[in-house]
Amino acid sequence: MILESFQIGEGQRPTVLLHGFLGTGRNLRSLATAWSEVDKSRRFLLVDLTGHGTSPRLPPGATLSTVAADVLETARAAGLRGPLDLVGHSLGGRVSLAASLRSPEDVASVTLLDITPSPIASNLSESGKVMEILRAAPLSAPDRKTMRAELTGRGLSGPLADWLVMNLEPAPDGGVRWRFDRESLAEFHGRVNGEDLWAALERPGAKVRCIRGGRAHYVSDADVARMEALGCPVATLPEAGHFVHVDAPDALLRWLTNAPGSGQG
Predict the structure, then answer these.
(1) What are the backbone angles phi and psi of residue 42, rounded to the nearest 5°?
(2) Kindly report the CA angle at 52 between 81 and 72, in degrees rounded to 5?
(3) Residues 130 and 91 occupy one common structural domain
(4) 177 and 75 part of one domain
(5) Domain residues for 24?
(6) Which end of the chain is more exposed for a tag (fewer CB within 10 A), N or C?
(7) Separation of alpha carbons 246 and 164, rounded Å
(8) What is the CATH number of the domain that holds 55?
(9) 60 with 107, same domain?
(10) Are 76 and 148 contained in the same domain?
């Protein structure tokens, strides 16, 4: 399945940036632009994951491997050649690990932005809590302001509500409606959070690195110890939460361009 995507940069090193749950490729545009200015050797592909943004909806029973296959097919259709550097935030990181298991010859490296290979407990999933509120909200509203008020009235912060209403589109009968299928996304989220992806780090020749937010809880200290024992370096940005690319963009960029496997220095 070919997904919605766009490219930044003119280099030859193919690098695919994958957003988190309920996001779109646009969420990582600033990161790709800044990284491209520092490293001219790269060509960045930013994808709307299956079921997100303006990409096709999730098929019934979709897994992380299903979405990973769509990402790889999209990268090849977009003209990216050779093994890919995959960089994924949250869900995008888990899709990246699934891609390296599904087709290791197509993946040069995986960079995880605040996400673990471990199954994610439902009580630790911030996106799961957001999904519950999103499912309780109406399908449509007269305008974005009204839908935003629905979300904040159910407990979401203003910035998070602003981010979510970017997924509204004009409704045929007027007003706005959600672009994505909330029920299929909720079902997908509940299923794939339980997937164990440690095999991607245990695979011979695997090149995986991770950076976590010091104020986030997705990558535990136990995860760090296990990851580093498997040869996966882990860095921590003390001032950042889960959205490391938003909370500490400069520090993240320095790490991306100077850490082992960056191709810099």
Answers:
(1) -100, 150
(2) 20
(3) no
(4) no
(5) 5-120+195-258
(6) C
(7) 15
(8) 3.40.50.1820
(9) yes
(10) no
Same domain, 160 and 199: no
Can you tell me the distance from the alpha carbon of 36 to that of 10, in angstroms, rounded to the nearest whole number? 8
Is the pTM value of this prediction over 0.85?
A: yes
Length of the chain counted residue by residue:
265
Structure-token pair, residue 249: 């963009």
Amino acid at 50: T
Nearest to 151 by CA among 161, 159, 143: 161
Structure tokens at 232: 């996966």
Residue with tokens 């299929």: 184
Residue 259 has what pLDDT? 56
Structure tokens given for 69:
């296959």
Check whether residue 174 and residue 208 sit in a common domain: no
Note the pLDDT of residue 260: 52
Evaluate whether 191 touches 59 at the Cβ level (below 8 Å): no
Is 264 inside any structural domain? Answer: no
Q: Is residue 90 located within the same domain as residue 202?
A: yes
Which residues does 96 contact at the CB level (< 8 Å), separation at least 6? 16, 18, 68, 86, 87, 88, 107, 110, 111, 112
Of the candidates 185, 219, 217, 196, the residue with the CA atom closest to the CA atom of residue 48: 185
Consecutive sets of 10 residues in the chain, 265 residues long: mean pLDDT of each? 97 97 95 97 98 95 97 98 97 98 98 97 80 94 97 93 93 95 94 96 96 95 97 96 94 87 41
Strand partners, 211: 113, 235
- The number of beta carbons lying within 10 Å of the beta carbon of residue 159 is 10
